[in-house]
């Protein structure tokens, strides 16, 4: 798989752009990067603030007959983003929050530095990645941070994407040839420790609070409730308790 990166000055959404393209002709290893987006999207329909100076990019994977479940690409991708962040700020405390958010510790609290959005165009899965490189957007519902906060100087967005694309290629091969179990081994190493308080909201509006107890064999979240029961979460918005992320 050869890596090819196309850069455009501005677009509505790099994911939306890729969904319109003939992905079979482009082939795996293609990346589309925009300097800024006018309609960037996060999970659950949230707006992804996209000022110039941060990384906004999309790539895709063609799902083969023997590949793991497509949804597990979110966790695989989080590994590539995690290792990219570590590459640039190796002395920072960095963790993955289920399923794929990368959080960095600053001033004794955790801040979000990136997000991942998967969209299906079978047999392809389009993967959008946003990373705060030089700007940490001021958001009402969560703390944010950027690489520049730790580097104390401007960071080259193209250099970040170069590392990200290489780490993505590495973990995609692991995902495809060694299976999800190997990906989860990496993921567990990079995630928060067992016992970390977390909460999630269910579809009916109820909130569940428990302690992080790892993930199941298929990547679902296991929360241990106050009464000792395990609650398995297959999808949802998970937050660190009292951290705002």
Give a description of the structure.
By secondary structure, the chain is an alpha+beta fold. It is 26% helix and 32% strand. It is built from 6 helices and 13 strands. The protein has helices spanning 14-19, 23-26, 73-88, 148-151, 157-178, 180-190; strands at residues 4-11, 30-37, 55-62, 94-97, 101-106, 109-112, 114-121, 124-131, 197-201, 207-215, 221-224, 230-233, 238-240. The chain has a 5-stranded mixed sheet. It has a 5-stranded antiparallel sheet with strand order 12-11-10-9-13, with no helix packed on it. α3 (73-88) crosses α5, α3 crosses α6 (180-190) and α5 (157-178) packs across α6 (180-190). The N and C termini lie far apart (35 Å). The model has no long low-confidence stretch (mean pLDDT 91).
Short key terms for the protein model shown above:
5-stranded mixed beta sheet; 5-stranded antiparallel beta sheet; single chain; alpha+beta; 245 residues
Task: State the gist of this model.
The protein is of the alpha+beta class. Helices cover 26% and strands 32% of the residues. A five-stranded mixed sheet has the order 1-2-3-8-7.
Topology pattern, helix = H, strand = E: EHHEEHEEEEEHHHEEEEE
How many helical elements? Answer: 6
* Average predicted confidence as pLDDT: 91
Strand element count: 13
